[in-house]
Amino acid sequence: MIIKRFNKLIHLISFRALLFIVLAATALLQFFLMIDNVRGVTYDIQLTELSPETIRSSKTVEDTVKTEIERENAEKAVDPVYIYKDEVPSQRATFVTTIFDIALEVKKDIAEAEEEIPQAEQIKMLRSGLKDIFDNHQNLILSDAQLLNVLSASQPNLESARDALATLVEVNLNYPLRKDSLLPYRNELESKIRQQPSISEGLMSVAIVIGRAAIVETEVLDEEKTAIAKQQAKEAVEPTRILQGQIIVQEGEVITREIYRQLELLGMLDSEESIKPIAGLIILILLQMSFLFVLFDRTEKDIASKRNELLVTIIVYVIALIMMKLIALISTNFDLMIAFIFPSALVTMLVRVLANDRTASIVTIITAASAGIIFHEGLSGILQMDTALYILFGGFASIIFMRSLEKRTDILQAVGIVTLVNIVFIAFYILMGQSGYGMKEVAFYVAAAIISGLLSGALMMGLLPYFESAFGLLSVVRLIELSNPNHPLLKKILTETPGTYHHSIMVANLAEAACEAIGADGLLARVGCYYHDVGKTRRPLFFIENQMGTNPHDTMAPESSAEIIIAHTTDGAELLRKHKMPQEIIDICLQHHGTSTLKFFLFKAKEEGKELDESVFRYPGPKPQTKEAAIISIADSVEAAVRSMQHPNAEKIQKLVQTIIQDRVQDDQFDECDISLKELKKIEDVLCETLNGTFHSRIEYPKE
What integer pLDDT is reported at residue 403 of this predicted model? Predict the structure, then answer.
C-alpha cells in the first residue's frame, strides 16, 4: 500500500512538473507573439517640428490639465450666495435710539446732581455710557465738542432728532444692501438727514455721524452655500477627454507645445512608451495559464491520459496562435477585417474530439481572448471584441451541435451550423457598425464567414489523424474507421473464423447496450468486441464456433487444449500491435477474460486423475482495468453460454446471467476497475432484456 501511494505521488509530481514546464513555455511563446499587438504606435517627434503624418489618438484618455482649467473657470463663474437679513433695519434703528436714550439718561443724571458738574466731566460721563457702543462700532467717532452739543441740547430736541434719525435709518435699510455699496447709501442718508427739519442745527453733525455708522449691509455672504455652489459647478464639468480616433495633429502641421503635451499624455512618443500594456498582457497570459493549470491538475484520469490531453490541447492552441498571428500580419494590406477568415471552431472541435467538452470550453474562451489581442487594431478598445465574440460563438456552436461523430454527416452538420452562426454574427457586425458597406464588402464578409466554417471542419479532419498517430489517441472518428467491415483485420476474422465473427457481433451488441446503460463508452466497447477474439484466427478450428464436425480437443491433453485456448488473448494482442491498433483495443483483447479459469479443461484434467496446478488453466490477464473491459468480459461469456443453451427462455437467461456475474465477482475479476454492484445490476438487466429479444420463442410451423 505504501509503495503504491509513493508511486502515485511520484507520478503526480512528475505530471505537475510537466504541466508547469509546458504552460510556462506556452506562456513565453504567447507573450512574444502578442507583445507587438499591445505596444501601440509611437512617434519620434520634437517640438516645433512638422508632423510627418496625420496622427490620431490611439485610445481615449482624460486630459487632466484641460479638465482642471475648465473646472477652475466654472468655479470662478459662480456668483456668491448672499442672504438678506430682514431683522437688520429694526436692529439699526434700535442702535440709533439707544445712543440718544443713553445721552438723555446722562443728561438727566447731570441735572439731578447736587453739585454742578464741569463740562469736561459731563463729556466723560457721556463717553463712558457710550463706551460699549464705541468699542463695537469703530466707525462711530464723536468728538468732545459733538458730545457737548448733545448734552447741551434740550430733551425735546434730542427726542425729536432720535425719532427722526431712527425712522430714516430703518426706512433706508429695508432693501438688500451689500458691503461694497455702503458708501453711496451713507452719502444718500447724510443728504436726507440734512433735509430733516426735526433735527436741530446743533445736533446735525452728531446725527450725520450716527446715521452713517448705522448703515450696515443687510445682505451678507453665505460662505457655506457659496462653497457648495462652487463645488457643484466644478463637479458638473465633464472631464475633457481626448477621444480614440480623434485627430491630434494634421500632416505638415507644426508640433506646438499643446500638441506635444497631448501626444505625451497619450504615450505616443518614443520616449513615453508605457510598460502598462505589457504588464497587462502578462497578467492576461498568467490568468489563461492558471485556468489551464487548474483544469489539468484536477482532471481525474490516469497520468498517461492527462499527459496526452495536455500536450494535444497546448499544441492545438499554439497552432491557433500562429495562424492568428499570420492573419494579423497580412491584414495590414487590406482595408477590410480579414480576421473573420480564421476558422472560428477549429480549436474547439479538435480539443473536444481529442480531449473533452470541458477542456474545449475553457480553451475556446482562452483562444477568443488571445484573438482579441492579436487582432487588436490601433483605434479599437482594449480587445478586438468583434473577433473575440466571433470565435466564442463559433466555438460554442460546435460544442452544442457536434454531439456525435459516428457519421460523417454529423461532422458536416456541425460545420454547416458553425458556418450559419458565423454568417449571423457577420450580419450583427455589419448592422451594429452602421458603416456604409457596399455589396463587395458585404460579399467579402459573408465569404469569410463561410470559409471560416469550412476551414474549421476541413482542418479538424486533416489534423486529427496526425494527433491520433503521434499521441496514440483513440477518438470517435478513429473508432468509426476501425468499425468499418473492410478493415483488414475484420475481413481476416470474417473469412478465417466466421463463427468468431458472428460471436463478436453479438457480443458487441450486448456490450454496447450495457455500456450505454451505465454511462460508459458504448462505441469503444462495440469496436473492442469486434477485435477481442482476433487471436482465434491463428488456430481457428480449436474454437467451437468455427468447428465443422470434428473437435481436435477430443484427442488432446487438457493442459494442451487450455494452452491453445488461453493463448488467443496474447496472440490477439500481438496481432493488434502488428497492425498498430490503439492501446485501448489491445487492452480489451488482453483483459476480456481477466485471470479467469478454463473450468471445462480443469474438470477434464481432474476426471483423468491428473494433479495439475490450477494456474495452468487460468488466463494470464490482466484483470479488466476499465468498465468497458469488464462489461465485455461478462457479455462474452453470457453470449457463448446462452448460444449453447437448449431452449432458452427469460427465466433461464436471467439465472445464467446472474450466475456468470456472481462467478466473476467471487473470482475477484473486477477488483481493478471502478465498476459498482449497482452498475452490475443494471448490466444484468440490460443483458437479459437484449438476450430475450434475440432468443425469443418462435412460431413452430406445421410439417407438410
Answer: 63
At 274 the pLDDT is: 62
Per DSSP, helices labelled H in 402-487 are 408-433, 439-471, 476-482
Angle made by CA atoms 245, 246, 251, in degrees to the nearest 5: 100
Q: What is the pLDDT of residue 674?
A: 87
Number of C-beta neighbours around residue 308 at 10 A:
19
pLDDT for the residue numbered 342:
93
CB distance 249 to 55 below 8 Å: yes
Residue 62 β-bridge partners: 241
Of the chain, the end-to-end C-alpha distance in Å amounts to 71
The per-residue pLDDT for range 475-503, each reduced to its tens digit, is: 777 888 888 889 999 999 999 999 999 99
Answer yes or no: are the C-beta atoms of 364 and 370 closer than 8 Å.
no
CA-based nearest residue to 320, from 377, 251, 369, 355: 369
- What pLDDT is recorded for position 63? 79
For residue 618, the SS3 value is: strand
DSSP letters spanning 387-406: HHHHHHHHHHHHHHH----S
Question: Quick one: which of 640, 650, 553, 555 has its CA closest to 596?
Answer: 640
Report whether 188 contacts 128 (CB < 8 A).
no
The Cα–Cα gap between 342 and 448 comes to: 8
CB–CB of 371/325 below 8 Å? no
Q: Which of 389, 390, 371 is nearest to 30 (CA)?
A: 371
Q: What pLDDT, on a 0 to 100 scale, did the predictor assign at position 126?
A: 83
In Å, what is the CA distance from 672 to each residue of 311, 468, 529, 663, 676?
28, 27, 20, 16, 11
Return d(Cα 360, Cα 292) in angstroms, integer.
11
Are the C-beta atoms of 369 and 377 separated by less than 8 Å?
A: no
Contacts (Cβ under 8 Å, ≥6 apart) of 291: 362, 366
| Pick from 174, 164, 213, 178: nearest CA to 88 | 174
* Alpha-carbon distances, residue 211 vs 129, 173, 186, 204, 274 (angstroms): 19, 11, 8, 10, 71
- The neighbouring-strand residues paired with 242 are 61
Q: Among residues 384, 460, 374, which one has the least CA distance to residue 418?
A: 460
- Output DSSP code: residue 50: B
Q: Is 543 exposed, middle or buried (0-12, 13-18, 19+ CB in 10 A)?
A: buried
What is the maximal distance between C-alpha atoms in the chain? 176
Q: Give Cα separations from 636 to 517, 526, 565, 597, 648 (angstroms).
A: 17, 12, 14, 14, 17
Sign of CA dihedral 556, 558, 559, 565: positive
User: What pLDDT, on a 0 to 100 scale, did the predictor assign at position 201?
Assistant: 84
List per-block mean pLDDT (blocks of 10 residues) for the chain, which spans 704 residues: 41 75 93 80 74 73 81 87 86 87 85 81 85 83 84 85 86 83 83 86 86 85 86 84 76 80 70 71 93 89 81 93 90 75 92 88 94 72 80 91 65 87 90 74 90 91 84 78 90 92 93 92 92 92 83 86 90 91 91 89 80 83 92 92 84 91 92 91 92 64 51
Read off the amino acid at residue 457.
G
Half-sphere exposure (Cβ direction) of 41: Cα atoms closer than 13 Å: 15
Q: Which residues are bridge partners to 84 per DSSP? A: 219
Residues whose CB is less than 8 angstroms from the CB of residue 86 and which lie 6 or more positions away in sequence, other chains included:
218
Contact of 603 with 562, CB cutoff 8 Å: no
Q: At what angle do helices 408-433 and 385-401 cross, to 10 degrees?
A: 150
